[in-house]
Amino acid sequence: MSEPDEFVAEYEPVLAVVFDVGRVLVQWDLKALYGKLITDPARLEWFTRHVVSEEWHFQHDAGRDLAEMVAARKAEFPGHDALIDAYATRFLETIPGNVPGSNDIVHTLASRGVPLFAITNFASPFWKEYRSAEPLFDLFGDIVVSGDEKIVKPDPAIFDLAAARFGYRPQAMLFIDDNAANVAAAKALGWQVHHFENAEKLRLDLAARGLLG
């Protein structure tokens, strides 16, 4: 992506900042849970690649019923019932903490009066459980959750929905995401974008755009 000092000349002013949640604001790793339950590294790798995998989890982000998913997975992988059940009952343990530095950026933007929003691929029941215990999102004006809408990034429809709800033109919003496909989808629709790697690079970008002073 462009160096920070190029943003000011290339883009119109940012009126609102829109964050992804997982791996931008909070850490997310299935192994944070399953590393507690599976001691053999090779078996842990196999299980999180083939049984409770990110690709399988993505179906729940898209709105597939949790009980249906779990029952089908148990039938497909017999003998792993307790481990598959842990996905449903202990999901918040896959979120071991915050991404270093990102929450400080959110608080700084909020203190400067920058409107904040989010678009997240997050299963509806898991989001409700997580959100109830996370005050950071009190600073956000609105959050589009894929599991509620049954639309997932990078589907253009979720960005169109978000723009309508947030009340800003895509060109006036900066979308921040760690997933290159999501960033590309937003950019194609006219959003300003930042492909997140770490908080330090994000801070430089936001400062170059005049959002951090």
Automatic annotation (TrEMBL):
Q: Which InterPro entries match?
A: HAD-like_sf, HAD-SF_hydro_IA, HAD_sf
- Keyword set includes Hydrolase: yes
Question: What is the name listed in the Swiss-Prot or TrEMBL entry for this protein?
Answer: Hydrolase
Annotated signal sequence is: none
Organism of provenance: Novosphingobium colocasiae
Spell out the SUPFAM superfamilies in the cross-references: HAD-like
Family annotation (NCBIfam families): HAD-SF-IA-v1 (TIGR01549), HAD-SF-IA-v3 (TIGR01509)
Record keywords: Hydrolase
UniProt KW Nucleotidyltransferase keyword = no
Q: Name one GO molecular function term.
A: hydrolase activity
